[in-house]
Amino acid sequence: MANLKKRLPENVEGEFFVDSTCIDCDTCRQLAPETFAAAREYSFVRSQPQSAEQVRRALHALLACPTGSIGTLHHNNASAIKADFPLRIEGEVYYCGFNSPKSFGGNSYFIRHPNGNWLIDSPKYLGYLVEKFEEMGGVRSIFLTHRDDVADAARYAERFGGRRIIHRAELDAQPDAEIILDGEDPVEVAPGFVAIPTPGHTEGHCVLLYENRFLFTGDHFDWDRDAEQLYASRDYCWYSWAEQTKSMARLAEYNFEWVLPGHGQRVQLPPEIMRRELQALVQRMRTQD
Q1: What is the pLDDT of residue 54?
Q2: pLDDT-derived band at 52, boundaries 50, 70, 90
Q3: Contact indicator for 146, 197 with CB cutoff of 8 Å
Q4: Has residue 255 got a pLDDT over 80?
Q5: 170, 165, 239, 253: which is closest to 199 by C-alpha?
Q6: Which residues of 29-64 are buried (b: 16+ CB within 10 A; e: fewer)?
Q7: Comparing 4-73 with 85-286, is the CATH topology the same?
Q8: Could you read off the pLDDT of 105-141 as tens digits, one per residue?
Q9: What per-residue confidence (pLDDT) applies to 78?
Q10: What gap in Å lies between CA 176 and CA 40, rounded to an integer?
Q11: Which residues pair with 187 in a beta bridge?
Q12: Is the pLDDT of residue 80 over 90?
């Protein structure tokens, strides 16, 4: 729980606050950008929520915060709001919430599917989420984009008998994974699910394309809220920027309209606009070689 004694001075006065345990993971700014903003190396409350919907989004951020750094001055109904999770994105695709500090607050996603449900990267292992996943039919497959965001994947795999999918170059982060990807060729790991190796951020980083509409991008790229364009971070490229640029260019061969990242803002764009945005991103990346 957030500590009022550690309340950051940048917070505006009012019900919600962020304390100094914040790790600047961006989760709260993704969920409630009208309430939270960035300052140096942490988030703060820039504007107290005014409407009931804004309060709800701020409470979503409070619950999803991996370090419990968001608090309120008085009793709130966060326990009731918890029932919103997993948050529906579209159709049977959901954002899990309850981001894990083990993945520096990385996002994870859940797909409800008639042939078995999918977890993409891992949230915290919580009894509440276990119960919700059970109600929704369990977890058959756990796709791990890369080593940084495995979090509690092993515990979910053990609980549900799920098969974990990861690239061989990332295998030391999940050595007993059940399905191992190799090389740089795309693989249809199940009907409608294509794993696409995207080396760059890490050597074995992969993205997952679902139904040619949803691209789960891990730490490969995301949407820049301020610049309103796709974005890849050279500062957090651990393996090879040249390889990340090449693998980014290859993604222009695919159709998709959703970018659902592990870190950063998600976005939905028409496929033809998404392709143009992706090509523009590749051009910007090439200027940074």
Answers
A1: 96
A2: very high
A3: no
A4: yes
A5: 239
A6: bbbbbebbeeeeebbbbbebbeeeeebbbbbbbbbb
A7: no
A8: 999 999 999 999 999 999 999 999 999 999 999 999 9
A9: 79
A10: 39
A11: 195
A12: no
- The CATH fold of domain 85-286: Metallo-beta-lactamase; Chain A (3.60.15)
C-alpha separations of 139 from 142, 163, 184 in Å: 7, 9, 27
Query: How many residues are given for the chain?
Result: 289
Q: Are 230 and 221 within 8 A, CB to CB?
A: yes
Q: Say whether pLDDT at 102 is over 90.
A: yes
Would you call the peptide bond into 86 cis, given omega within 30 degrees of 0 as the criterion? Answer: yes
Q: What b/e readout covers 187-209, taking b as 16+ CB neighbours within 10 angstroms?
A: bebbeebbbbbbbbbbbbbbbbb
Which residue has better confidence, 133 or 78? 133
pLDDT digits (tens, 9 = 90+) for 218-251: 999 999 999 999 999 999 999 999 999 999 999 9
Supply the pLDDT for residue 214: 98
Domain ranges in the chain are: 4-73, 85-286
**Rounded Cα distance, 41 and 200, in Å:** 25
Q: Is the model's pLDDT at 289 over the cut of 80?
A: no
Pairing, β 222-224 against β 214-218: unpaired
Kindly give, in sequence order, each residue whose CB lies less than 8 Å from that of residue 277, ignoring residues fewer than 6 positions away.
229, 230, 269
Q: Which two tokens stand for residue 123?
A: 């949230």
CATH architecture of 4-73: 2-Layer Sandwich (3.30)
d(CA 271, CA 215): 11
